[in-house]
Amino acid sequence: MDKLDQLFKKVVGEQQEPYDPSAWDSLSKRLDAGLPPKSNPFLKWGLPSAAIVIGISLATWYFSDRTSPVSTPHATSPKQAKIETQDQRNSKDADVNVKSQEKNVPLNDSGEEYIPENAKANEVTIHDDIDLVEPEKVTPIAQGEHLTPNKPNAIESKKLENSENHSFIAFPSCAGEFTELKNSNSYEVIIKGDKVNVSIAANSSKKISFGTGTYQVVHSTNNAILQTNTINGPKGEVVLDELVYENGLPVQSVHVKTDATVSSLSYGKHTLDLPGKDVSINPFNKGTYAMELALTDEHGCTEKISTVLNVNDDYNLLAVNAFEPNSQDARKSTFIPFALTQRATPFRMIILDPNDGGLVFETTDANQAWDGIDKRFGRIADANKAYVWKVILSQPRLGEKSEYMGTVVRM
């Protein structure tokens, strides 16, 4: 403010009005007459106003000149200094104008690109004595996730969880007997499947029986499915027909609905190597039997399917328990077990008296049935008496006994 006041005093002090003696005479007369003086408006207000305007202009120039950045030219040695000609300066100015039009940016009085003060404030100054280090690459994190000091971020945590080092648990490729599964992981797992829900502790093993189907290994803590395994094996269904008699033998037909091969069939104490899907067996004895069939598929996997076979009556060569020698029906006038007439198997049949055990009749020919004659006496046996018969087979069938016994009443 002191400089501004001095500037105003200087400007006002330099303003001097020209001396006019006649003006002072006229003014003196007016004063003497008591009349109000007639002043010149320009002299009263114009000169002071002009002085004020000039002062403000000078003050504006003075302060703007102090705040404007002054470019300090680099020192140039006399040997490197070059003198620009007027043509060179004109050419340089023209290039500056062209570049300014291309960039569409304003230029200052020196022909340089005009940079606002706020833009200069954002400029970064690089010092020679500071080493610039390239910043480390930082993995971006998803929106809403935060970094925790000394801990992996959320994305890394999820990755670690999803890609947890899971040691594969070896499952059998085929269904069958008990298989030992080893869990070498540091956490407990659960084996889930059809009729299977078994947990295996960390770093331990357990024996499990698997049938055909799909099984999953599940993390016991977060229920994550760690692996899925399919155990192969043939599947089938057993269909039993009604028991019938064919050629004097009991016949049970067994049908297996499967795409696999039937390698064996067993029931009771008997095992038959009869490959095929349609099998016939001869159940000779009364009882309930567990029937089991072994199947083999194209992968070499085997499976056993089972069912229950019920036999209501003992097989006794289809023998009747009475006959009448005087009957006109040939089927009732003699006695011989009917199966012997159909099977064509070697045999020996004897008829015994139950009172003394004496031999009443004997034959090895199915066409020679007992007609009721007691060969001991050469006459018809006593009527209404039960006699004991016995048949011995020299070539019995599988599962068949070699001796059959019964009683028959002579009517």
Describe this entry's structure for a reader.
This protein is α+β, with helices and mostly antiparallel strands. The chain has 8 helices and 21 strands. Among the domains are: 61 residues, no CATH class; 76 residues, Sandwich (Immunoglobulin-like); 89 residues, Sandwich (Immunoglobulin-like). About 16% of the residues have low confidence.
Question: What is the topology?
Answer:
Elements lengths: L1 H13 L6 H13 L7 H27 L18 H18 L13 H5 L32 H9 L15 E6 L5 E5 L2 E5 L3 E6 L3 E7 L5 E7 L4 E5 L3 E3 L2 E10 L2 E7 L2 E3 L5 E4 L5 E10 L5 E10 L10 E2 L6 H4 L4 H6 L3 E6 L6 E5 L9 E2 L4 E2 L4 E9 L9 E8 L1
Parallel strand pairs: 15-21
Antiparallel strand pairs: 1-4, 2-3, 2-5, 5-6, 7-9, 8-9, 9-12, 10-11, 10-13, 13-14, 16-17, 16-20, 18-19, 20-21
How large is the radius of gyration?
64 Å
Distance between the termini: 162 Å
Q: Reading side by side through the largest sheet, how are the strands ordered?
A: 15-21-20-16-17
CATH topology of the domain at 322-410: Immunoglobulin-like
| Proper CATH architecture of the domain at 322-410 | Sandwich
Structure summary, number of beta strands: 21
Largest sheet data:
5 strands, mixed
Order of helices and strands: HHHHHHEEEEEEEEEEEEEEEHHEEEEEE
Tally the helices: 8
Indicate the low-confidence ranges by residue numbers: 67-85, 118-163
Backbone shape: rod-shaped
Portion of residues within helices: 10-25%
Q: Please write the CATH class name of the domain at 322-410.
A: Mainly Beta
Name the beta content range: 25-35%
Structural class by sheet pairing and helices: alpha+beta
Question: For the residues shown, what is the average pLDDT?
Answer: 75
